[in-house]
Prior knowledge:
Chains A, B: GO terms for molecular function: DNA binding; DNA-binding transcription factor activity. Chains A, B: This is Transcriptional regulator, MarR family. The structure is a homodimer. Chain A is mainly alpha-helical and about 150 residues long. Helix content of chain A is about 75%, strand content about 5%. In chain A, helix 2 crosses helix 6, helix 3 crosses helix 4 and helix 3 packs across helix 6. Chain A is globular. The interface between A and B is large, with 52 and 52 residues. The structure holds a DNA duplex (30 and 30 nucleotides).
Amino acid sequence: MAEARKNEAVSLSRTRRTLPIALLRAREQLMDRFRPMLLSHGVTEQQWRVLRVLNENAEMDATDLAEKACVLGPSLSRIIKALEARALIHVGKHPKDGRRAVIKLSHEGQQFVETVARESAAIYKTIEAKVGADRIGSVLNDLEELTAALQSPD
Amino acid sequence: MAEARKNEAVSLSRTRRTLPIALLRAREQLMDRFRPMLLSHGVTEQQWRVLRVLNENAEMDATDLAEKACVLGPSLSRIIKALEARALIHVGKHPKDGRRAVIKLSHEGQQFVETVARESAAIYKTIEAKVGADRIGSVLNDLEELTAALQSPD
DNA sequence: TCATTATCTTTAACGTGTTAAATATATAGG
DNA sequence: CCTATATATTTAACACGTTAAAGATAATGA
Lengths: 154, 154
């Protein structure tokens, strides 16, 4: 059994100690705590990101919304249909540029966001209590630096 | 424009400075650098994770493989079919437990992993050069601590 | 003005994520 | 031995991720 554990440790150091997988695992651990709540409100994680971004920006076109909510264009097209069908958002056209959509929260959408945001904040607090706000801050700083470094030219 | 930038900064501090989104963004930045290479070899990111884990473990059942490769059971079922159809893996049954599968790399699979692993390592090195090995190590440590804290009881 | 090129959004096709349920085999208790 | 329960894997259904391409509108230049 000591031997088996040794082999496992070796394999972990190879695939697990790699940035993409470490990021994926950490994210799974986190989302496992949010998903049941989102499911109970009938939204997916991605739909929720879109709603939150809209709540902070009043009016956006699809390109900006996709960028800030971290979803791809094709996914956003489907999400917009779903959210519009539930009357959580309004979709119009830009008056000066017929290509652009103008997307905003409906009144129901705003109320929905408030409700879910409260529950989301409560879950985030339990995570903070467990992990430590300082550690979360340090991870966020590291991740921002990492992302910035990857985006820099060359 | 200074005003527009200020608004943007505020919104970023709200949705962007949140653990799930920061993890997602960092991961996207990284995978954008690996995906074209994987696509050129005809494997998805998830299939590649499965192959790598198999390369480090010789023989596994589906449950362990799914856990270590960070894919869900239903996804693994589909991935196994795809990789078996390409003869990159062999799938058998556990001799003492008819429920379990026994999955291992084929000879072609081993060669495939070697080829792709070389290119993958080269890409990882360019990332290391850009980001700094020290920073990567620090992010990995933070993420491991975060994941451990989230998994701890209560 | 007209054709060309660029930009915004959607559609298509296929693979994966997620949840629930089905299937098959093992194990435990009576 | 037989039934009930647990475990391993697959299937189903629906949403998103990813790439490529199509459709629609703007901007550009001859």
